[in-house]
Write a structure and sequence with these properties.
With 414 residues, the protein is of the alpha+beta class. It has four domains: 43 residues; 47 residues; 153 residues, Nucleotidyltransferase, domain 5; 82 residues, no CATH class. The chain is 31% helix and 15% strand. Helix 1 runs antiparallel to helix 2, helix 1 packs across helix 3 and helix 5 packs across helix 6.
């Protein structure tokens, strides 16, 4: 501002030409005349000090400014959906009021900020996101994700929301308030889901209870049931919830909109989950779906729950041994008995003797491990497939080695 004042004073004295004076101060003639004219105008006004400070560049009028009606509609919709952002609210407002000329998403954000409808977030250093490839979710019901959204207190009890989503359409299939993570309650809830929506091709879960266990092949009572129904079970890597990122992102919205604060009982909490589910599926536009709703992409599975609903025994080779696992997890064969897993209690398995003293233990198409017989003794040693490593496939291939009959002379070590 001092340089501007010196320039104006030198221009008034007229000791140098105006062009030479502008060159000395390093400004254009246009800016030079602007400051000289502003000085003369302000000097002519009574009771006003001459200022060389920058003035506001805000225009006197804004023809493209939104009307008070549109701004009020934006504010009202934001108050109804306080957790939705500008992109989704702009789509919803356009559907509700197609006659309104809606502003851009940045204008929506500016209106939120102007009316105090957003809280600034503390900036944190974030790790670049990573998501597991989900290319096989190419159609509805190709892959479902199942998980518990933590737990929270409801009065003197705890609530464990069991959530089921379709990875292709982001459709929330179920959100059930359960008092715990027990297998019986989860199986009962999934029975109702399968009966209403059919069966998926695969289910993706974490490695926690009741979806997996530390037993053979990570099988649990639930995953055994799924395998009998023809559902492939996928488990994410331990400690990597980002591999199920779509489901975890939905959990964030579920927590914000239904548990702050929670209801006083499970019976009263369930309607909140139902309301959130309906809003998420039918009203909330999804950016990954082209700002359309999950309801527009999802359809009920054509694979229906069979009879009986707990699944039938697998059909094995007529020449192979097919013992049934005892209640305590043991298996008895003509060459001895061995412990397999209590999660497979009462299930029918196949003993596939592909060599003289070696056999595969199969549960349907799932290879559980290898059975080794000691020559000359009635002793069997079972090695799970995770201990064998890459030497044995986890599932049956199309071409298998020749099976030996359990009563064949080639199979008798004595």
């Amino acid at each position: 501002m001092e340089q501007r004042k010196e320039f104006v004073e030198a221009a008034i004295r007229g000791e140098h030409s105006f062009t030479e004076l502008c060159r000395r101060f390093g400004i254009s003639r246009k800016n030079g005349y602007k400051w000289l004219d502003r000085y003369r105008i302000e000097l002519a006004l009574p009771h006003r000090d001459v200022s060389f400070a920058d003035r506001s560049r805000r225009p006197h009028r804004s023809p493209t400014a939104i009307s008070a009606e549109v701004e009020a509609a934006i504010v009202d919709l934001r108050k109804q959906r306080p957790h939705w952002g500008p992109k989704k609210l702009r789509v919803v407002l356009g559907k509700q009021n197609p006659e309104l000329a809606l502003p851009s998403e940045s204008t929506f954000a500016a209106v939120f900020k102007r009316h105090g409808l957003v809280r600034p977030r503390r900036k944190r250093t974030k790790t670049p996101p990573y998501t597991a490839p989900l290319g096989h979710a190419s159609h509805p019901n190709a892959l479902w994700s199942i998980d518990f959204k933590g737990d929270f207190a409801i009065g003197a009890a705890r609530c464990y929301p069991l959530t089921v989503t379709d990875s292709y359409s982001r459709f929330i299939i179920a959100c059930v308030a359960l008092p715990g993570t027990g297998t019986v309650a989860v199986k009962r809830a999934l029975h109702r889901v399968f009966d209403e929506y059919g069966l998926p091709d695969a289910i993706r879960t974490d490695n926690g209870c009741p979806f997996s266990s530390r037993g053979v092949a990570g099988l649990s009572t639930l995953s055994v049931w799924w395998h009998k129904l023809g559902i492939r079970h996928e488990r994410i890597d331990p400690g990597h919830p980002e591999q199920n990122g779509r489901h975890e992102r939905m959990h964030l919205d579920l927590k914000r909109e239904t548990t702050d604060p929670p209801a006083r009982s499970l019976v009263k909490q369930q309607p909140r989950f139902d309301q959130f589910r309906a809003r998420f599926n039918q009203e909330r536009p999804h950016e990954a779906l082209g700002q359309r709703t999950p309801h527009e992409f999802y359809e009920v599975s054509s694979r229906r729950l069979p009879e009986p609903w707990w699944g039938k025994d697998f059909e094995y080779d007529m020449e192979a041994e097919t013992p049934r696992v005892t209640r305590d997890g043991h298996v008895a064969t003509h060459r001895g008995s061995f412990f397999l897993s209590s999660t497979l209690a009462h299930q029918l398995v196949e003993i596939d003797w592909y060599q003289r003293h070696r056999a595969r233990v199969l549960f349907g198409t799932l290879n559980l491990g290898e059975l080794v017989a000691k020559p000359g003794r009635r002793q069997l040693k079972f090695r799970p497939v995770d201990e064998i490593g890459a030497t044995q496939p986890s599932t049956l291939s199309v071409e298998q080695p020749r099976k030996l009959s359990p009563m064949s002379s080639d199979n008798v070590p004595f």
